[in-house]
Each structure stands twice: as C-alpha cells, then as structure tokens.
Amino acid sequence: MASRSCTNFLDLASGDLLDIPQTPRSLPRVMTVPGIISDLDGYGGNDRDSDATSSICRERKIIVANMLPLHAQRDSESAKWCFSLDEDLLLLQLKDGFSPETEVIYVGSLKVEVDVSEQEEVAKKLLDNFNCVPTFLPHDLQEKFYHGFCKHELWPLFHYMLPMCPDHGDRFDRLLWQAYVCANKIFADKVMEVINPDDDYVWVQDYHLMVLPTFLRKRYNRVKLGFFLHSPFPSSEIYRTLPVRDEILKGLLNCDLIGFHTFDYARHFLSCCSRMLGLDYESKRGHIGLDYFGRTVYIKILPVGIHLGQLESVLNLPSTSNKVKEIQEQFKGKKLIIGVDDMDIFKGISLKLLAFEQLLQRHEEFQGNLVLVQIVNPARSSGKDVQEEKREAYLTAGRINEVYGSPDYEPVILIDRHVARYEKTAYYAVAECCIVNAVRDGMNLVPYKYVVCRQGSPYNDEAMGIKTDSPRTSMLVVSEFVGCSPSLSGAIRVNPWDIDSVAEALNLAITMCDSEKQLRHEKHYKYVSSHDVAYWSRSFVQDLERACKDHYSKRCWGIGLGLGFRVVSLSPSFRKLSVDHIVSAYKRTNRRAIFLDYDGTVVPQTSIIKTPSAEVVTALNTLCNDPRNTVFIVSGRRRDKLSEWLAPCERLGIAAEHGCFTRWSKTSDWESSPMADLDWKEIVEPVMRSYTEATDGSSLEIKESALVWHHQDADPDFGSCQAKELLDHLENVLANEPAVVSRGQQIVEVKPQGVSKGLVAEKVLSTMVSNGKPPDFVMCIGDDRSDEDMFGSILSTVSDPSLPAAPEIFACTVGQKPSKAKYYLDDSADVVRLLRGLATASSPKPRRTAQFQVSFDNGF
C-alpha cells in the first residue's frame, strides 16, 4: 500500500495544510535570450524534450542550503536591515573550488525573521548585493520544519538514536513531515525563479532538503543536480524505521550525484537502496553508480576540507599571537589537551571527561602537569537531553577539579561562552594533543584545524618562541565514529564508550617520542593542506559535470505521483511497444516467428503460481492455431515443468533449459542439443550445496543440463555478496571444463557451453528460411539477461543477405532498462494485453497436419 505521504505534490505543499502564503515572485526572471525574459511561474510545463533555448551567459552554480551565509541585524538608527557575509561558513568557502568566471547564487533562509511588508525590499537587496535568494518561510512552518522534523526526527535518527520511549526522542509526527515537504517545495520554488535549467548546476546541501530534488526534477527533467550529505547516513536497520523512508530515498535518487564524507555512509545508503527499492549498484571506471530507471545516479565519497588560507591568516593576527603568549604564561610548565565541541548529546563531552579523570587516577605523574581545556560551542538545539548533557559535564568537571585540583592547578577548564576564532586558534597552537571523542558525528573539522595551527606561521612561531625551521609535532585522539577518522591515518583511533582505552590513548599521545609525533604530524599536514575545501568542491563539481554529460543524448519523461515521482531516461530509439503498431504489422504479414520468455514475461516474476493464466493459454492457443505463425516459449525452466504448465497449448513450441531440449509441439518428441559430457556437474553441485547451507534463504535447483543457485529469498546484501563469491569460485574450478557460469536475476547458473536462447531463435529462423518460408515478421519478448542473446541473435540473423526481404522486427524487453531491444513493455500484464491484441487479429483457421519440423540435431 502506498504511504499516505506519497500524495500529490501540491496537496502536500499547499496552503491548506499550514496556511503558507504564496511564495513572493518579486525576483528578476532569467534571461534566456537577449531581450527575452522567461516566465518560470507555476508548473506550466517541464523540459521533457528540452526545447528551451540555451542561455547565453557565464557559468553559474546555484547553492541551496537551509541557511544563507549571511549575518543580519537591524541598524539602530534607520531600523533597516543590514547584512554581511559570514566568512566562516562552508557555503562561502567552497567558491574557491570554482573558476573565477563562475557566478554563484545562494538560496536559503535567513537567521532572522523578516516582516512580510519588508520581504520584497530585502529580497531585492540580497540578490543585488550578495547574490542571495531568501526563502522567507513563515514562522510556524520554520518551527515545524527545522526545529520539528529536521532536529527532532531526522537528526537523531541519522545519529542512530531511535525514539524507543517518549523520554528518548519524539514519535514520528506526520504534520512535521508535511511541514518538511512544504518547506522543501518553497526552496524549490525559489530555485526555479533564478535557474536556467539548460546551463546552471544546482548543488543542494544536507539533510534539511532531501526531497527538494524531486520537485526540481519534476519541473525540469534534465536539471543538473547534485546533493551532499554533511551528516552520517545510518545503517539500513536504523534508517528503515523511518515511516517516510522510501520518499526520502527517492528524493535523493532524483539527483545526478550524491556525496558522502565516508564510504561507510555511502555503503549504508546503497544498502538502503538495495533492501527497500531493489536497486543494485556497480563501479564504473572507479565511480559508483546506481541505475535508476535508465538514469545513472553517481555516488561521491570525499570528506570536506578546511579553508587553509583563512586559518593561516588568523594565525598571523596580532591578537592570536598575544593570546598564545597569554595561554603559555597561564599554563607555564603544564601540557595542554584541547577539545572543541558543540554542546549536544553526541559529542561525547562527558565520556571525554571521564576518560581524563581515569588518566589522572592511573598516572599520578600527570596530576598538576596536565590540563584539559574543553571549549563548548553553543548548542544548536535545545531540549531536555542537551540540558542533561550539560549538567553532567559540569558535575564531572567539578568533581575532577575538586579531587585532583589545587589552588594553582585546575585540571579541567570548561569554556562555555562564545570563543572568537583567534582565541580557538591560539589554544590549538599551544595544545600538545587534540581529542575528538564524539559517539557519532558527520565529519568534524576540529582535527584538521588543530593540525594546521600546530604547523604554525612566522608570527605565531615568534610568539611561541620557536624557530621557523624547527620540526612540528601534533597528536590526535579521534573517535572511530567520526567522519574525519578514516582520512587521519596517523591519529590514535578510539571507541569513545571504552573509557579505559581512551585514557590509555591520551597517555600514549602525551608520552610518545617527538620523532614519531613529528612523522604523524607531517602525514596529517600533507593530507589536510592538499585536501582543503577548494579541492573538495572542485572535485564534487567535476564529478557532477561528468554525471550530467549525457543528459541531452537520451529521451526523458516523468512517471509516478507525489514524492514517488522519477524520470525515465532512455535511448532515443528505445520506446514502448504500442499494441496498435504491432497489430498493424502483424496483419500485413504472413510468415511470423514469435519467441516468448516464460518467467517475468507471460507469467509475473513475483508470482508464486507459475502456471499460465486462462487468458494467456487462450491467447497462445489462438496464435498457435494460425497457420502463418511459428510460436515458441524459450525458457531456462526444466522441460518437465514447462510440459506440465503448458499442456493445454498443443501446438506450442517449447525450448527448455535455454535450448538444451526442444520440441515443436506437444505431439512431437523432445530433441536434445549435442552437448559434451556433464561430468562438471559433480564438481559444481557440492560447491553450490555448501553455499546453500551457508546462506539462509537460498536454494539449489538441479536441472538435466544445468545447476542453478537461487538467492531471491536470502538477505539482499548477503545473498548478493555470496552470489559474487560463488561466481568467482565456480569460474576458477571450471576453468578447463565445457561449462559456462552466468549470473541472472538473483541466480547463479552453470550450463553447458554452446547453449543459449539466441541459438534457439537462430535455428528456428534459419529452418523457416530453408523450408521456403522466410519470416516477414519476428517478435521476441523477454525480461532478463539471457533474453538479450535472443535479441542479438534475431538482429544478426534477419540482416543475413540470403533473406529475400528484411522482416519487420519487434525485439521487446519487459521493464524500462538498458537493452539490445528497441522496444519495451512495462510488465507481464502489458505482455498479456499485447498477446490478446495479436490473438484478436489472428484468423483462427485449423492447421493442416503437414507441418515442417525443426531439427536441432546439428544446430549446436
């Protein structure tokens, strides 16, 4: 049953739900041709075949984020709004990765609430002065969207916290979800006001806007769209507890490129796509891609970096040098450990303090000589959990200072106030060690900043009293659950929950010899300095451009309702097979060859009942009774099963086990294709049985000529993994045997060499020619990889110059997917409708008894 959230877009995002005012339309329209302004209001149409004229302008990037990179305040005298750029934000810093000619437009909300009467003036001012487009979400919507769904639903879930009870997170609230969808719709509207869809690239940032891609893709089928997730993506066991899980996954899949900080996050996302949507991924020349209705959605794995130049400029400030001297004087003769964290429940501040307490208890030599300076950034959200975390941190710090402190020594210093950049920089520069002990964090750039500050600068070196050419050292203790951990190979990685191991890691970091500290620092600095924020954004945009390069070489059209909308993108020559079109060709021809696969074609793939329906039997019998038709079912199934299921179709030809066994009609004998010995089955069967025993839900099917290992009922990830392993295993052990190992839809099959569905079609067609009845109509329908052999064989056979005239060919795959076939049908129900149409067009005259037989004795 479809989710209630999967209703029409405009129902979800309409003012009927949350009294949302019409999005202001005061911004200048996009100029697509000099002197002509395009009208982008409403949903009047989309670019299904992209006949819009391309913009003649410089390259543009549209960055969409929850908040604009601006400071805002009212002027005390004029009472007008004043704005300035927030240089600390990533959104501004990523521009360094773009070419100087690139124009960057920002779309997002302001951190302040602007009165409706002032919104038009403010919007014009922000666009003119800062290239910013504000969204102006109504206050009630902003609360439900950001503080409601984002912070109370998504953020805890993405950090592995489930609402197991009312005191441990909020239950799912559908009104908050509707607010999230409405807010995303407003953001999408604002993008549409300024976008030139043929030329502009859109880059959406973070979990606040995960369904926005669906709105943009619906309006502009070929929009160039990237998304980067700055938080963790949870494992499928956690993520699939979200009631709107499919809608969010499908929203992300409407992008061309999806970015993650680590492979773990990407792996979790891919696992969710596999388990919930049945999508498989593959690596294409080093790039991970998901095939989604003909579009390839690429996955990017690259952690974000820091702005090196900005940090180095702060290092050279006189205020930083003065603060360095002050800190050195304050902690003279002592070693510093620095921690900088937001006050929230996932940063592990209390666990860090407990580990430091353990360190002082076990190593008395540090008492009086070692200080932990913990800078606490203001909490980004409020709540009972945050207050409890803060209270526990203060209680723990107070206990440590009471037990181990003295009048001239305070072991733990909690700085719980706004700390200027220069002051943080000074603490980084002085500290012997930096610890990041978060229990879950998307990235965390604190270690990167610490390493750069420890590298120093001429002014900072002078303040610290060290020579410019002296070796540098730094030590990092980093939680293994933090996104930056994989990229810092020289850090001491810890499990933050294991207080003893964290304490010992701190001890190792402080007591390690300087030469090793120097080597670790050099390794980290080399990575951090070369993988800065410009490198990150440049790499992402290059991959986005690569992902979008084929947009205009394929036909695109939208399908699906509500948040289930997606775009089908296929070759221009690949189209749906019209019943009227094929019936017209069918009526004007007299020598017809019809080849049909069985599972997934005339019988639904997912059906437990494998016998054909009465409607299928009637249609097949009508087609077979027409003397102008040669009809074959070509399947990988065993001949006894096909004989049983298709018993009512007396004149139907059957090719079983991919053509190993063939008969022309029910009354004719089965003919076997010449095969080498099947001794290899004795090698394969024990191997497959061992994989069956090791893989719950898998099964082994023994055919006369082949062995098949099925894993459709196994765990999707484990079954796929085992199938790949089995494929490699069998290819190795059968290297010198006359057998072929292939992988199909949730199967691994071993069959004799020289046997394929393609050879069946080739032999039937050549026999028709040799009997003086060259085909003038060939139809072949199938749904899996083995049927591609038939499509290829038909195309090559009918192009043979020995044929008097080229027949009309209808090679058709079931499902919209890349194929050798020129046509597609959506499912087996479409196939049955087509067969019924052909049967109606047939003239069911009785067959004469004298019919030629197909001999397969020498065909293989």
Automatic annotation (TrEMBL):
One of its GO terms (biological process) is trehalose biosynthetic process. It holds the Pfam family Glyco_transf_20. It is an enzyme of class 2 (transferase). Its EC number is 2.4.1.15. It catalyses: D-glucose 6-phosphate + UDP-alpha-D-glucose = alpha,alpha-trehalose 6-phosphate + UDP + H(+). Keywords: Glycosyltransferase, Phosphoprotein, Transferase. It comes from the Eukaryota. GO terms for cellular component: cytosol. GO terms for molecular function: alpha,alpha-trehalose-phosphate synthase (UDP-forming) activity; trehalose-phosphatase activity. In the C-terminal section; belongs to the trehalose phosphatase family. NCBIfam families: HAD-SF-IIB (TIGR01484), T6PP (TIGR00685). This is alpha,alpha-trehalose-phosphate synthase (UDP-forming). It comes from Nyssa sinensis.
